[in-house]
């Protein structure tokens, strides 16, 4: 997607992506050929019907044979029935193809999106991605399930009809064809205009959807700053921009359709006038004139249909370009071809001279030559001011990004040499504000182990001290928690997240402390659950509170991306230069010196 001054732009050189359309149809070749065969059969019948009319009219006028006329009528009815059956088969399988391809494309796109690391979603707004999965793919469904079928049928009838017109009367056919080139040229020109505008519309609507999602997700912030009118104005501006582009598309299509209709009637009137003259002079029979008029109507209607289909396919091409742009973008974090597929057993974590810059901010060295080791059963606390690099260390362990230099090892193997799935299976994370998905409590606890038994889920809930709360609910573990877990409290969300990590049984834990905003009872329960969770595991804590720092086996003090001090709490308080100042920032200004309620390190 290309933006200019916040508005989408489009390339002046665009092509209809036939190759991409065919790629979508390739897995279903048999059904495509079934639909195409039915289409060809129906097209042949359509071309045969005017001949039956011609024969019937001429024979009846020349011989006054009512029985022969009746026979021709029954033959025509039979052909019409066969035509109806062929249309049913064509329409059914073309619709099936459209629906199936859309289902496949949505699934394929979603699966591809899930392979991208978080950095991809930092660079692409969620609303834009959702727009591609919804409105863009719906346009492709219409193109594959309807427009391609119409295009093939119209092309067949146009080609066959023109040949039969030449066979009937070459002179009249040449006159009729003189009218067609302007329609064709106009259709191609309008199609190019429409395609460019259509991609611009899709891009604009994607931006509008992104803004809509952000505003709704942050509704409390929007309302607290009385920014409703500002957000509404931004959304309205994008929608109106899309409306203007849509009206330009409508203008191009309207001009195309009206011109095609005008050309059709001009052709018919000219044919009737000239053909009537030929009938009067005996150079053409009434039946031949009737058949010629029918073929003329069929051909001109098909050409008009092709022009409209061309415009619609060009609209859909903007959507298919956006989808394929997404699908061809390779995730930045992938497995090496010969990556190790063994699970992590011991739980030894080692950073060796790791340096890292975020791709979006290459001028800032976020981590600078970081080296440390975390052993099984130990707790390593990461402390430092905001922006020091603590969360970046956690992100690199997950391989959300790879460092530009240095090595991160699990059990002595560079994590880039391990299967990504094995690396992340070995990790359990509990954030300050844990993500709870819509669904039941059971679904969320078993998120990391979908095949968990009921007894395993209950055991994890007990270890996380959430079983008492769950047992009081009418639906127990089948209770719906709502979107983002809004139906449960902060402490309950924390304990559900801890139960989820317990059930996954990881070798490493990464904890972003989250008890500073909880009441004393919930805080005590979460602390107890975390203590159980940490037993026997290698634990890294992004520490904000003195009690956690004191209990850590090793404290790593991070300042401007470097580990400037390391040791136990007591060692650092005695000999450290930076750490005592950080601890001083943690002490609350209240007389009771309640260390448990100290603020976060800033």
Protein model, in words:
The protein is α/β, with parallel strands linked by helices. The chain has three domains: 33-327, ABC transporter transmembrane region fold (Up-down Bundle); 338-426 and 507-595, Rossmann fold; 435-505, P-loop containing nucleotide triphosphate hydrolases (Rossmann fold, 3-Layer(aba) Sandwich), CATH 3.40.50. Helices cover 62% and strands 10% of the residues. The protein has 20 helices and twelve strands. The protein has helices spanning 18-25, 29-63, 66-114, 118-123, 126-168, 170-177, 180-217, 219-224, 228-281, 286-327, 390-397, 420-425, 441-445, 454-463, 467-471, 490-504, 520-534, 546-551, 569-575, 579-586; strands spanning 3-4, 7-8, 349-356, 367-374, 379-383, 405-410, 413-414, 427-430, 508-512, 538-542, 554-559, 562-567. Strand 11 and strand 12 form a beta hairpin. The protein starts with a strand and ends in a 16-residue tail after the last helix. Residues 1-16 and 589-602 have low confidence and may be disordered.
């Amino acid at each position: 997607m290309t933006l200019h001054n916040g508005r989408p732009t489009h390339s002046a050189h665009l092509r209809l992506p036939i190759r991409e359309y065919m790629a979508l149809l390739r897995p279903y070749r048999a059904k495509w050929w079934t639909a195409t065969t039915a289409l060809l059969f129906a097209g042949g019948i359509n071309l045969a019907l005017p001949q039956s009319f011609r024969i019937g009219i001429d024979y009846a006028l020349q011989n006054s044979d009512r029985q022969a006329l009746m026979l021709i009528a029954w033959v025509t009815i039979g052909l019409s029935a066969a035509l109806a059956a062929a249309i049913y088969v064509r329409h059914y399988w073309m619709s099936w193809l459209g629906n199936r391809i859309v289902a496949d494309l949505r699934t394929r796109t979603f699966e591809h999106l899930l392979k991208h690391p978080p950095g991809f979603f930092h660079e692409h707004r969620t609303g834009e991605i959702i727009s591609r999965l919804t409105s863009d793919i719906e346009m492709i469904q219409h193109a594959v399930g309807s427009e391609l079928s119409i295009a093939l049928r119209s092309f067949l009838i146009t080609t066959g009809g023109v040949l039969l017109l030449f066979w009937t009367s070459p002179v009249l056919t040449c006159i009729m064809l003189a009218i067609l080139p302007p329609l064709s040229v106009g259709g191609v020109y309008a199609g190019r205009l429409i395609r460019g505008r259509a991609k611009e519309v899709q891009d604009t609507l994607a931006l509008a959807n992104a803004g809509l999602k952000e505003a709704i997700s942050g509704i409390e912030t929007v309302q607290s700053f009385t920014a409703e009118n500002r957000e509404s104005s931004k959304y309205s501006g994008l929608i109106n921009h899309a409306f203007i582009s849509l009206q330009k598309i409508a203008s191009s299509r309207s001009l195309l359709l009206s011109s095609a209709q005008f050309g059709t009637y001009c052709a018919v009137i000219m044919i009737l006038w000239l053909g009537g003259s030929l009938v009067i002079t005996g150079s053409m029979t009434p039946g031949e004139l009737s058949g010629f008029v029918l073929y003329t109507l069929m051909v001109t209607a098909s050409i008009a249909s092709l022009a409209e289909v061309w415009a619609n396919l060009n609209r859909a091409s903007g959507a298919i370009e956006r989808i394929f742009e997404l699908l061809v973008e390779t995730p930045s974090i992938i497995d090496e071809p010969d990556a190790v597929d063994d699970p992590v057993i011991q739980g030894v974590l080692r950073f060796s001279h790791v340096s890292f810059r975020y791709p979006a901010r290459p001028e800032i060295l976020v981590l600078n030559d970081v080296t440390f080791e975390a052993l099984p059963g130990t707790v390593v606390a990461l402390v430092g001011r905001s922006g020091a690099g603590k969360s970046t260390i956690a992100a690199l362990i997950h391989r959300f990004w790879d460092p530009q230099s240095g090595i991160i090892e699990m059990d002595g193997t560079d994590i880039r040499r391990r299967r990504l799935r094995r690396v992340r299976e070995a990790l359990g994370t509990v954030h300050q504000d844990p993500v709870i998905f819509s669904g039941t409590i059971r679904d969320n606890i078993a998120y990391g182990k979908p095949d968990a038994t009921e007894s395993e889920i209950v055991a994890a809930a007990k270890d996380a001290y959430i079983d008492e709360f769950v047992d009081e609910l009418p639906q127990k573990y089948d209770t719906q928690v709502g979107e983002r877990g809004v139906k449960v409290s902060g402490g309950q969300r924390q304990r559900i997240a801890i139960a989820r990590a317990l059930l996954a049984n990881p070798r490493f834990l990464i904890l972003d402390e989250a008890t500073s905003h909880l009441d004393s009872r919930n805080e005590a329960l979460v602390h107890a659950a975390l203590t159980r969770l940490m037993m026997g595991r290698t634990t890294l804590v992004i520490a904000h509170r003195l009690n956690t720092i004191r209990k850590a086996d090793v404290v790593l003090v991070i300042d401007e991306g470097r580990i400037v001090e390391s040791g136990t709490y007591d060692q650092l308080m005695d000999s450290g230069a930076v750490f005592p100042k950080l601890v001083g920032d943690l002490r609350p200004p209240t007389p009771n010196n309640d260390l448990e309620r100290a603020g976060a390190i800033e």
